[in-house]
Amino acid sequence: MVRNHPEITAAMTVTGGADALLHVRARDVGHFEEVLERIRVEPFIRKTISVMVLSHLLPDSPEAGATHAAPNADPTDASDVR
After folding, report:
1. For residues 18 and 46, what is the distance between their CA atoms, to the nearest angstrom?
2. In sequence order, which ranges of the chain are alpha helices (DSSP H)?
3. Residue 42 lies in a domain
4. Is residue 5 one of the residues assigned to a domain?
5. pLDDT tens digits, residue range 16-43?
6. How many Cα atoms sit within 13 Å of 48 on the Cβ side?
7. Residue 12's pLDDT band (boundaries 50, 70, 90)?
8. Based on the structure, what is the number of domains in the chain?
């Protein structure tokens, strides 16, 4: 399913009320709505809950789109290097 939606940049199983967490990158709110509608019609999707990132508290993180390691990062740590 994830491969059918190029806007999904990460997918994880999670604990709690949801079965999975999908990280979706969209151009704008309209594009996000369109992607969400495509996801919702998948036969095994019963319910979706979405949240939108408003700002990044750690702007140098990979999740914020940083393309370089954060200052003082261990260069051998693969999670900090893109």
Report:
1. 11
2. 29-40
3. yes
4. yes
5. 989 999 999 999 999 999 999 999 999 9
6. 18
7. very high
8. 1
